[in-house]
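User: Hi! I'm a student and our assignment asks us to look at how structure tokens line up with a sequence. Could you show me two examples?

Assistant: Happy to help. In each example below, the sequence comes first and the structure tokens follow. Example one:
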Amino acid sequence: MPKISGNQIAPGSVVSHDGGLWVAVKSTTVKPGKGGAFNQVELKNLIDGRKLNERFRADETVDAVELELKDFSFLYADGDSLVFMDLDSYEQIELPKDFVGERAAFLQDGMKVTLQLHEARPISIRLPQQVTLEIVEADPVVRGQTAASSYKPAVLENGLRVLVPPFIAAGEKIVVDTNEVAYLRRAEG
């Protein structure tokens, strides 16, 4: 593994530290009145999500970890598992639903996702930033509502709830942000 010095660790860097894989969330260079400068880094464990604050001096080195990005296609859900197919080799892999978390509700047949892999082991998954879904249930517009509270609750075809503008009705398709789980705009066509 390539080595980097402690002052080169920046947000987004993935390092091997204390026997685990960590991603740098924040980093701040600190120059105390006495002694040498150091890099104060907030790390997040890629496997279990633990957080750690660590000081790295410029003369310390850590192992930089390269993650492989691979495209997969979502095939189907099987109980508590999700089945994906490697778009290059056509091999199938099964991941637990909680690997994807609540965003698993956005997965659609054939959807292209990107997996980050370390030594062929999935570390994280990236879904498309936006998906188009149909509204199956929306509250009627209440006349006289103020503009500040003009958004109303609606239920999407995947069962998730979002707030939508009053002009959106059941049966319409909308574009939803998969990270924020929020309405973006009415779908075209």
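Example two works the same way, sequence first and then tokens:
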Amino acid sequence: MIVRSVKSCLLALALLFASFAATPARAGGDGPEAMVMDNMCMVMFGYDMIHITAYEAEGARDQYCEHIPIVGRIIFTFDIANPDFRDLPIELRIIRDPLVPVSASTDLEPLTLIHLPPKLYRTGTFNFEHKFTEKGHFIGYVTLTRPNGEKETKQFKFMVGQTLWSYVPQVLGAVLIALMVGVYWRHSQSKPKAVDSADALKSS
């Protein structure tokens, strides 16, 4: 019974990791606020999206999204999919992720690296360059002002450089699998001994 339970747990764990691998990675926020697709992030305002792509300012023209592998000058490009959004003010703020929950009352100014005030982008696209001097985790906030004056903010998260926290899911997954395999091996080795003892009692 124990071995069967362990096998079931191993199967469930394998399916769980497979589902994570097959699902597009979230870039921050609850619900369909931001997601990653083909190395291009997007923040969702209802069913409308704004695409976000990062490039190295010098060298390779690879596209990045939630993980920018280098520290240095990075160009961010924002493409506004909905033509109606071109007539609405859009504000952008990028902060260093404090790695603790950020609430509406949190003062973002001390954490802010980039702030673009509300502006109309008639061409449907805008970009800017920023030089990251150290690796770390960051949060971007895109704020759209609706025609009625209501402000709607969505966020996207990204990392710059290789950081220790980027390996945490893999390490935890490896440890969990090792523990499950260890339990399975232990009980599979002890099972024949239990059967032999039962046979000995019957024969006596």
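Here is something you could point out in your write-up. The helical segments are 2-22, 168-203.
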